[in-house]
Design goal:
47% of the residues lie in helices and 8% in strands. The protein is mainly alpha-helical.
């Protein structure tokens, strides 16, 4: 099993998916709210209150930080805050993803899920 870095809170699916949404680069809250249900086929949706609470926890834990990145002015809303993973945030996300991969491997070995690519 993978060692999990210490965090001051539980790694919930919402926290994991917010971090995962930032793995490809800087993003703003509304884009994260759209990204998560798209990636999960609607299985996980994050409302604005929950997202801003989660982002606050992640900022306090220094897993994410505000970004100065801005798109072109004609594509931007100056009220938006952009966020990005910190190095520690990427380490925590990687460790959690590795742990989940181990869990999926165990479930596969027990015949609970089909092999990827098979129906």
């Amino acid at each position: 099993m993978v060692d999990r870095p210490e965090t001051p809170f539980r790694m919930t699916p919402v926290v994991f998916h917010v971090l995962l949404a930032l793995a490809d680069g800087d993003s703003h809250a509304y884009q994260i709210m759209k990204d998560v249900p798209e990636r999960t086929g609607g299985a996980i949706e994050i409302g604005p209150g929950s997202l801003h609470y989660t982002l606050g926890k992640l900022l306090d834990a220094e897993l994410v930080e505000e970004s100065d990145h801005r798109p072109r002015p004609d594509e931007d809303d100056p009220r938006r805050k952009y966020y990005r993973l910190t190095t520690r945030g990427r380490e925590v996300l990687s460790a959690e993803a590795a742990l989940l991969a181990d869990i999926v491997d165990f479930a596969f070995e027990k015949g609970l899920i089909p092999e990827r690519g098979s129906s």
